[in-house]
Amino acid sequence: MVFENREDAGKKLGQFLKDKIEKVDLVLGIPRGGVVVAKEVAKVLEAPLSLLIVRKLGVPSNPELAFGAIDPDGKIYTDPWTVRYFNLSERDINRVAQEKLKKIREREERFLKGKAFDVKEKVVLVIDDGIATGQTVIAGIEYLRRKGARKVIVAVPVCPRETLERLKNYADDVYCYHIAESGSFAVGMFYKDFRQIEDSEVEELLKDGVL
After folding, report:
1. Range of the domain at 81
2. Could you read off the pLDDT of 115-134 as tens digits, one per residue?
3. Closest CA to 33 of 19, 47, 13
């Protein structure tokens, strides 16, 4: 299974979800690539769109490898095995976390214009362009629960089966259009066009406003 691009993935995911989800109050895309997918899903489900700005915490020697994630409240989530394997100190963790929290604040100001969305008692659907380990999404789920969301649903175009099963322990429902059963996994493997999405493109996707 290979998607043409994120728009294609979003349209397919939206149709996939249409008969499975009765009601969604708010679709939340994870910047930046997840916003492209979320926009298409929101169109199909006729739901408003906003952003869930959570960030991966990368190992200092290999930033693409996550050892955890951080949410907009500054709460840090870590994978103990990865932290131990790379011998990361509390100072290492906090340094990376503060850098990422600064990025979250910058994105909140740029994309949300400092406007906080209200999820209390709402059914929210969290969308990304794919999930590898799930740490960032888990941070987002926990954040939304603290903010009072009535139900948190996660949906993505592609993810490994073990990650799908893991996420079921956190979200109320989890949907994955294409489940990768085995072997090495990277989200970009499942897209013909997986170019980096720029901040200006996210702003264009949100030009109708965010809630």
Report:
1. 56-107
2. 777 899 999 999 999 998 89
3. 13
